[in-house]
Amino acid sequence: MSRTIAFGDIHGCATALDRLLVEIQPGQKDTVIGIGDYVDRGMESARTIDLLIDLVSKTKFVPLIGNHELMMYHGLYGEKSDLDYWYQHGGNATVASYGGRAENIPQHHLQFLSHCVRFFETDTHFFLHANYESNLMLAEQPDEVIFWKHLKSGVPAPHVNGKIAVVGHTPQHEGDVLNLGHILAIDTYCYGDQWLSAVDVEAGMIWQANNRGDLRVSKVEDAPESPAEAE
Ligand SMILES: [Mn+2]
Questions:
Q1: Among the CATH numbers 1.10.1200.10, 3.40.50.360, 3.40.50.1820, 3.60.21.10, which is that of 13-173+181-219?
Q2: CA 107 to ligand 1 center in whole angstroms
Q3: How far is the CA of 129 from the centre of ligand 1 (A)?
Q4: Which of 124, 130, 183, 196 sits CB 3.0–4.6 Å from 16 for a disulfide?
Q5: 231 band by pLDDT with thresholds 50, 70 and 90
């Protein structure tokens, strides 16, 4: 049996990620998608990247780019102002997890960052970090939408490809996956003391863990009849 499992925004919450991986035990037949924002804000970005690199050999792992990976990349390779910007948006926590010096970030972690991709799709779903333009091909989505635009500043119409979108980036402050029918929002605010979610998108199964190591399992709820507000 092969599964398609998407992980929401991790933001350095390695304890929660580790708990989910122990529970789910993804294997060689499973496609695992990281929705982006692996680093920043939480305490354990370095260990998070280690856990994700481990998934590369154990599963079919597709790490997407989030806006925080972009900020980190530009911070490390760009101007001083890019570094300052990253630090102000949670990069300080990431560097702290490497012992307080950006120079300590190992080469294989930088390589992992450079291998992250903008989007992924299956026959039924597509996956990207933040948001999309419904009438543009996935490869043509602008950076400011695919990496940055919150759902609360605009819930798009169903994409012309007819598939269900799976996105992160817009934190669901109550800790619950949001099902809008054509969009599944899976950032459940782990770094804000809520939950990290992993969703088997075909089975509609949700696993959630937090930084205390608690685990809960549920099903994706039916979408509301009337258009709902993204939190
Ligand atoms: Mn984000």
A1: 3.60.21.10
A2: 24
A3: 7
A4: 196
A5: low
